[in-house]
Structures are given as C-alpha cells and as structure tokens.
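Researcher: Quick test of sequence recovery. Tokens follow.
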C-alpha cells in the first residue's frame, strides 16, 4: 500500500472514523489536526445526505471536531453534481432533508412532483408513506430513479435505524425499477473526491469503517485502503468478504505517530 508517511492525499469516511453515535472517537481530533499540520490534502466523505456542509460543520464542532466546509463531500453534493452533468437545469421530486434539497437548488434544479426528470431518494428520519407512494407513481410514469446511497441502516443513539438503501429497496420492489446509487461504494463519488483535491489514486489513501462501502470503493478507485475497527465492521467480518483492505487498525489514533 501507499506508505502513510509518503501519502500525498487522504479520503476519509466520517461516521465510524471520526465520530460514532454523536460522540467523538478518541484520538480523532488529534489525527485530523496532525493531518492538517502535515500539509496533506484531505477530504471527508459521508454517505449521509441530510446535512449541508455548513450544518455538518456546526454539528462536528459541537463534538470537538473542527472541519472546514470545503473539506466535506457528501452524497447529496455528489448527487447534485451528477444530475447537473446529466440533465442540466432539470427537475426532481425529492425525499430527503435540507442537505439534498439545498445541493440540488444550488445547481439550478427545480423541485416538483409534476413529471420530474428524477425521483431522488436521500436520507431522512421522517420517511413519509405519502411521499413514497408519490415516488412509486412518478417512477412508474417515467421519472428516473436515483438514490444518494445504498446503506440499509444508519447509526443512532438507540441503535440502527432504516436508511436510504432500505427504503430504496421498498420502492424498487413496488416499481420493478432499480435506483442508481451515487454515493459510496460507487467509484463516481471517489473520483469526484480525487478531482476536488487534484489528487492521484496512486498517492492517495482511503480510510473507512465499512468493508461494503468504504473499502470496496477505495479498491475500485485504485486507492490504498485502511479499515478502522471503530465503526461498523468487526475484525471477524473481514473474512466474509472476497476482498481485503490494505491495512487494518483499531482507530485513527493508531495512525497519528506515522503522519
């Protein structure tokens, strides 16, 4: 793998790497400060589409993690960029929160339930049966089906909660039409991250806590990968997958001395 000491750029997952269930993972703030002080380019990626970068910055600051807005790349931003390149100035029916609707407005999209170009499903803690029904009918009428990410569950203080991937499966079952997922593990999100940094895959490290999104996305984008065990994937889980990360550590705290 790319040696940590010589890695020029870093793509980092957020949940499970820096924070978990609303609290800071020990050593994560020191790791980030060391990464910044080293002058290395980095971007924090998240499949969570609920928050705008500004709102996410404020939430992270309250946990003790100081991250500039420009260093955050969400699946909402990636989805907005994708539709802007595919159908500029288009329209969408959206199920999601401000992070997704703001990103779409920022690229000139109109939000409507009248024959939209896309039905776009994102993350929300308030999935509405009426909205899902509208989505099903619009997709059957010809609107194209996009989803921000395939994660079936997300974290909460009370335990796992159904997430975008689970709701997408319900809509897919009702319509017979599969969504196009923009977020990880789609290499599209990784390539946009690399382009944002002006980085090359051969000198970039991807660090994440999930084998099924972070590690496979990094591998398919040609990056060295580090799996941290401070999030979803356990050491026992690794053997269930046909691919392996370049390296496994307990948390980012173990990497501080190598930066």
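Model:
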């Amino acid at each position: 793998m790319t040696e940590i000491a010589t890695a020029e750029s870093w793509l980092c997952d957020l949940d499970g790497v820096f924070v978990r269930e609303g609290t800071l993972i020990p050593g994560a703030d020191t790791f980030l400060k060391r990464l910044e002080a080293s002058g290395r380019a980095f971007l924090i990626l998240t499949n969570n589409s609920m928050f705008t970068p500004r709102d996410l910055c404020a939430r992270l600051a309250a946990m003790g993690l100081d991250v500039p807005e420009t260093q955050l790349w969400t699946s909402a931003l990636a989805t907005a960029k994708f539709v802007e390149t595919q159908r500029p100035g288009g329209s969408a029916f959206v199920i999601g929160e401000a992070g997704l609707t703001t990103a779409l407005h920022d690229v000139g999209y109109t939000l409507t339930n009248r024959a939209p170009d896309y039905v776009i499903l994102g993350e929300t803690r308030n999935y509405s049966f009426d909205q899902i029904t509208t989505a099903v009918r619009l997709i059957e009428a010809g609107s194209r089906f996009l989803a921000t990410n395939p994660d079936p569950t997300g974290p909460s203080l009370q335990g796992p909660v159904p997430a975008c991937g689970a709701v997408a499966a319900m809509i897919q079952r009702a319509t017979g039409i599969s969504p196009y997922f923009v977020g990880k593990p789609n290499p599209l999100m990784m390539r946009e991250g690399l382009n944002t940094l002006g980085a090359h895959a051969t000198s970039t490290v991807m660090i994440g806590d999930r084998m099924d999104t972070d590690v496979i996305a990094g591998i398919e984008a040609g990056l060295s990968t580090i799996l941290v065990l401070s999030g979803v994937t356990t050491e026992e889980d690794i053997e269930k997958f046909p691919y392996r990360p370049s390296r496994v550590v307990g948390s980012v705290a173990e990497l501080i001395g190598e930066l």
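The first strand starts at residue 9 and ends at 13.
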